[in-house]
Amino acid sequence: MGGKVSGVAISSILIANRGEIACRIIRTARGLGLRTIAVYSEADRGAPHAIMADEAVMIGPAPVGESYLRPDRIIEAAQATHADAIHPGYGFLSENEAFAEAVDNAGLVFIGPPAKAIYLMGNKAEAKRRMLAAGVPCVPGYEGENQDDLAFAEAAQEIGYPVMVKAAAGGGGRGMRLVQEAGDLAEALSLARSEAANAFGSDELILEKAILRPRHVEIQVFADKHGNFIHLGERDCSVQRRHQKVIEEAPCPVMTPDLRGAMGAAAVEAAKAVDYRGAGTVEFLLDAAGEFYFLEMNTRLQVEHPVTEMVTGLDLVAMQIAVAQGEELPLKQEDVRLDGHAMEARLYAEDPSRDYLPATGHIDLWRPATGDGIRVDAGIASGMEVSPYYDPMLAKIVAWGETRDVARRRLVQALKESVLLGPKTNSAFLVDVLEQDAFARGEATTAFLDEFYGGGFDADEPDGAEVALAAALLLDSERGAAFAAAGYVSRSQLGWSSAPLAPIPLHLMTDHGDFDVGAECLGAVWSITVGDDLYAVALGKRADHAVRARVNGRTVDAVAVITGDGIGLAVSGRRFGFRRGRSGMQGEAAGSSGRVVAPMPGLVIDILVEQGQTVAKGEALAVLEAMKMQHQIAAPMDGVVNSVAAAKGDQLASGDLMIDIGEAAE
């Protein structure tokens, strides 16, 4: 596979990717005794994947178009470091046929399928035509070359609403819009074209009949150059938000042996239809009646491949490398066994309570869970920055169990024990999803999140005991620092006074509310008043950010990181960030303001209003691209646009003014 002859031995691999997938590939490659080369952008200087590899090459500035999406720089790095092969991981250039061909032409081994297979399956329109010819069940749709709005409108009318608009050249939920009625089609086409062009370099679209409430079930396939094709069972990826998978599991909860055989056979036929080689995933929609329809084929390793590895006992990256060297697959279809159940949750840097806005910032602490049946794939470390330039996925928390429920409960515990303090994450949201009765019963479809979280997700608010603990830890730290800087003072005198001391006033600010706290030090115990409630906080043994405390006689185990005038606190599965402020300050009470600011760092894709225009609350004002997704910025109130401070193409920082809206004249 690639430019080298059959049977060539690979001794060194360059990983053309970053983050957790780069780290995961490096682990297997090094376990096989191979030399590894990482590439990194300026934003990833010092990132874990660059440190893990035997060598690392800087390939450009932070934006992906100047670094990870530059085939020339990646191939130059491979040649300069004398790499034999390039593994593309997933995302970036992994499904770019021109890159695969360029690797081949450079005399390097591409650890992936042939460029032609990538092209045939990478274009949804061409892939669907191929699948229909191969007899693979497909969703009714439109894959025509005529890309005019009128052609789409006529096709949608013939197919019948609702329909799904999709980017023909890509996946991952980008360039995809659900259209419920004809009046919404034009806007959906415009947004999908823009997002597709930015994500994939092509604005070609297709239409498909929207199958409501299906399961999203995908089959892992493998093929070698000797004509052997197998599948490794299925993964259920139905829990999705905006077509981005959130939780995956293997096997599918409703799978039967007959259905697995039929879907597996269809997936193998799909792979054969394009003369596939290597690892690939054929995705299907499965309806309640047990009918399934081809959705797309991902010609790469999937994010969720660990759940397949955990139930089959196979290392899919090692198999990719073996196939790329010209070896035969290590097993036949009849040798494939599925043992137990595995679940994976994707830990994202995002705020579920604010419509899942991507989050950035400094990672104050990252401490992944460990234990029986637990696997954590991550590409982050304490002290690094979460950048606005890349996908917001930080880590994958995976659990295996003898049964589905054991795996589910282990995953819940692993999420609670995996502590990330600093940027917002979806950790609490993931736990909430896994603990929903419908999910526990295995009933989740692609409509699950809309049905159970259509009104949003309410973030945890700290209770009085958690506020008291945070205040005690923050004040105790400050007292300890003062003691260390003082002259000789006996530690036994800490908290002692010959006269009564007034309570220390402390104002703690959070994203969920502000708290005025009164604190007194009574020897080894802090007496903390939060509102009308009084808490006695005794801080016990502390080591490596872990603390055991007693709050009103109840033992509490927590993890805390103090940063400047703030503190990050993890208690069980709950995560909070407290900032110290002045007493009487109001937190984030500007909800009714007409100042529209960038909610995160990002690139302005479009400005949809102009000065003097009347707007209604909720109306789209602008489109901001951040972390590979486009976000509509909506008006917070009815009014008139006083000024537009941002322009198309501007790179904004979080909090930068975009648009100012004033009240309309009466």
TrEMBL record:
Q: What is its EC number?
A: 6.4.1.2
Q: Where is the Lipoyl-binding domain?
A: 587-662
Instruction: Using the record's annotation, list all stretches that form the ATP-grasp domain.
Output: 128-325
Which keywords does UniProt give here? Answer: ATP-binding, Biotin, Ligase, Nucleotide-binding
Going by the entry's taxonomy, the superkingdom of the source organism is recorded as Bacteria
What enzyme class is recorded for this protein?
Answer: ligase
Q: GO molecular function terms here? A: acetyl-CoA carboxylase activity
Q: What is this protein called?
A: Acetyl-CoA carboxylase biotin carboxylase subunit
Q: Fetch the Gene3D superfamilies from UniProt.
A: 2.40.50.100, ATP-grasp fold, B domain
Q: Which SUPFAM superfamilies match?
A: Glutathione synthetase ATP-binding domain-like (SSF56059), PreATP-grasp domain (SSF52440), Rudiment single hybrid motif (SSF51246), Single hybrid motif (SSF51230)
Any idea where the Biotin carboxylation domain is?
A: 9-454
